[in-house]
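User: Here's a protein and a ligand (zinc ion). What would the complex look like?
Assistant: Let me lay out the input and then the predicted complex.
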Amino acid sequence: MKWSWKITRIAGIDIYIHATFLLLIYLIGISYWNQHGTVSAVISGVGFILALFCCVVLHEFGHSLTARRYGIQTRSITLLPIGGVASLEKMPDDPRQEINVAIAGPTVNFVIAILLYLYIDFQNVPMTAEELSVTGGSFLYRLMIVNVFIGVFNLLPAFPMDGGRVLRAALALRMDHAKATQKAASVGRLLAIGMGLLGIMYNPFLLFIAIFIWFGATIESSAEQLKSILSHASVRHAILREFHTLSPQDNLARAIELTLAGSQKDFPVGYQDKLDKVLYHSDLIKGLQEKGEYARISDLPLQDIFNADINEPLGKLLERMRGNTAQMIYVTEGEKIVGLLNLENIMEMIKIQEAIEKHHTSQG
Ligand SMILES: [Zn+2]
C-alpha cells in the first residue's frame, strides 16, 4: 500500500503503518490537549488508541495464523485509521477453512475481552453499569468494552466484515461460490438499508456504517464476478485476429498510413514469424515531430512485446502483466502468430461477459 511504513516484523509477517493512521494519532492528541490541557490527558488518550490498535493487530494475526495452518501466507498487515488489513495471498477455497479464517479475528477480540474481565474481576474492583460504556470507566474497562464492540461489529453478516465472509462460506457449502457471494452481498445490502434508516432516525454514525457496508457488498460481488469470468476465459476469447505489423525497415509514413486506415494504434515490429518489439502510438507521434515521416521504424524507441499462448487463462496472463507497463501482447498458437491482445481487448471482453451474465441472472 502507498504511504505505508514498515514498523516491525512479527512471526514472519511485516507490519505496516499508514500515514493517515499517524494523522489520526496526531488529531486525537490535539483534541485531548484542547479538552484537558495536560500532557497526562494526551498520553492517556493516545495510549488508549495505541492499545486499541494492538488489539486490532492481534485480530489480524488471528486471521493470518489460522490461514497459515492451511498453507496460506500473509504478505503484510497494514494499520489504517478504520482498522487493520491483513493481505493474505488468497482466501481458502474450502468454505469450512474460510469460515475458520474469518471467525478467528473476532474470536481474538472476545478472548481479550474475557481476559480483561477476569483480570478486572480478580482485582476485585466492582463494575457499575455507568462504567460499562465506551467513554466511561478506567483504561482497562474501556479496552474490554471496545474489544467486545470490535468483535460484534466484525461479525455483522456483511462485506467487508468478517461476518460477510462467514455467511458467504456457509452459503458456499450448499451452492457455487459465485452464487453464494451474490446472495451474501444481497444480505449485506439489506442490512445497509436497515441500518441507513435507523441512522437517519437515530444516529448519523449508523448511516456512515450503512454506506460503508453498501459499498463493501458492491465491491465484493463485482470482484467475485470478475474472478469467475477470468477463471473461465482464456486468451482465445479476447484475441484481436485482424492486425498489421511493421518491419524495422519500414518508414514512419507506412505506420501513419496503417493508423489512418484502421482502428489499430499500436503496431508490433519484427519480421513475419518473429515479433519482438512494439511501436506505441505516442512514440510514433513523438518520432514524427523529431525525425519526420521518412525516418525508419528502427530509429524510434521501441518497447518490448510480450507473448502469450492462445490457451493461457486470462487470469494468469493478467497476473503476469501486473506491474508491467507493456500493454501489447502477441498471441501464438504453436509456432504461429495468430493475433494481438491488449488490456483494452480484455476489458471489452469482461464488459461483454458481465452483460451476458446479468442477462442470465435476471432470467433467474
Ligand atoms: Zn477481521
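Summary: Residues 59, 63, 105, 154, 162 surround zinc ion (CB under 6 Å).
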